[in-house]
Design brief:
heterodimer, A: about 250 residues, mainly alpha, MetI-like fold, B: MetI-like fold
């Protein structure tokens, strides 16, 4: 094998003259985390709303929610990124389009919005599944107690639904971290892009990607540990086991 | 705002879109799914086996691949393949996507 290994490359100065390659990778990891966290905030809030209206008793709201989910789930994430970044500024009125194209962190904001909405459709699917997995008696009981429909969702259905869907939600969160790497196609220098530019500057391809891989694994381990802790923290004794047969519904 | 749009371009590039692009997508999907199911089933068996070490190796592989973004996996294999090609020929695209699908299949089985 004619490849020259050089693990010390991480501590060498990168061509920009101020930072080492390791710092470059860490900056990339920072962008990855910032994108993922902001997008997750969008995904969780929009996804919850869409998931709730898909279980609501109003037919046209259900159809609207279904259409939303189908739209965002059926278009590849990469295509969505391109649509937001390249197409959206063109179809907007001239002034807004120019402003969108010229703003400094356009690719970051685009990535956050795109990733957030894309994941929100997936979150909505899980919120809906979580609510449907509850026994229908819970909704009826809530309404019979004199709670309004929003109150029933807020105090009866959603707290339990979220506990049930916590495991799929945490894997969705891992997904959003990994999917943020797609943003490199619209020019966001996140972790994968940083590794790629490092490999191009230094010609140490495998070291660069090993570094990025290790950082991704570390992030993953931390997230998984955090989610396990959260799961234990919010567990309702006896409930999750009990809900298993109800999930078939 | 739609004034400078040239919808005709879609019509003109239809043959390209459907013949080349779609054929490639479908071929890759089919091949990767086939490879993924085969490798994934083997991995799942390996993870369930009693042979010491084998289940750990398979588990480590699955965790490694699953914690990497697809883009990074693509880069890895894109840069690795020329070097692998020095030893054996034939390590090509389906395997890299197969790794992802196999991880998926493994976890579906679990």
């Amino acid at each position: 094998m004619s490849y020259k290994w050089n693990w010390g490359v991480f501590f060498q100065l990168s061509p920009d003259g101020t930072y080492t390659y390791l710092q470059l990778l860490l900056f990339g990891a920072g962008w990855t985390l910032a994108t993922a966290l902001l997008a997750w905030a969008i995904a969780l809030s929009v996804g919850t709303v869409v998931g709730v209206i898909r279980t609501s008793p109003v037919p046209w709201l259900v159809r609207l929610g279904n259409a939303y989910v189908e739209l965002f789930r059926n278009i590849p994430l990469l295509v969505q990124m391109f649509l937001w970044y390249f197409v959206l500024p063109e179809v907007m009125p001239q002034a807004i389009g120019d402003w969108l194209k010229q703003s400094a962190n356009a690719s970051f904001y685009n990535a956050v919005i795109c990733l957030g909405l894309y994941t929100s459709a997936r979150v909505a699917e899980q919120v809906k599944a979580g609510i449907l997995s509850l026994r229908s008696g819970q909704r009826m009981a809530g309404l019979a107690m004199g709670l309004t429909l929003p109150q029933t969702y807020r105090y009866v259905l959603l707290p339990m639904a979220f506990r049930i869907i916590l495991p799929p939600l945490s894997s969705e969160f891992l997904n959003i971290i990994k999917n943020s790497s797609v943003a490199l196609t619209i020019g966001l220098i996140e972790l994968t892009a940083a590794a790629r530019s490092m490999s191009e500057f230094s010609f140490q391809v495998f070291e660069a990607f090993t570094g990025a891989t290790l950082i991704y694994i570390i992030i993953n381990i931390i997230v998984v540990a955090g989610m396990r802790w959260l799961e234990r923290r919010v567990a309702v004794p006896g409930f999750i086991g009990m809900s298993a047969p109800a999930a078939a519904h | 705002m739609f004034a400078n749009f040239d919808w005709d371009v879609i019509l003109r590039s239809l043959p390209y879109l459907f013949l080349d692009g779609m054929r490639f997508t479908i071929m890759l999907t089919l091949m990767a799914t086939g490879g993924g199911i085969v490798i994934g089933t083997l991995l799942a068996l390996a993870r369930l086996s009693n042979i010491p070490g084998l289940s750990h190796v398979a588990g480590a592989y699955v965790n490694l691949i699953r914690s990497m973004p697809l883009v990074l996996v693509i880069f890895w294999f894109y840069f690795l393949v020329p070097y692998i090609g020095q030893w054996i020929t034939g390590a090509s695209r389906p395997i890299q996507v197969g790794a992802f699908l196999s991880a998926l299949v493994t976890f579906t089985l679990f």
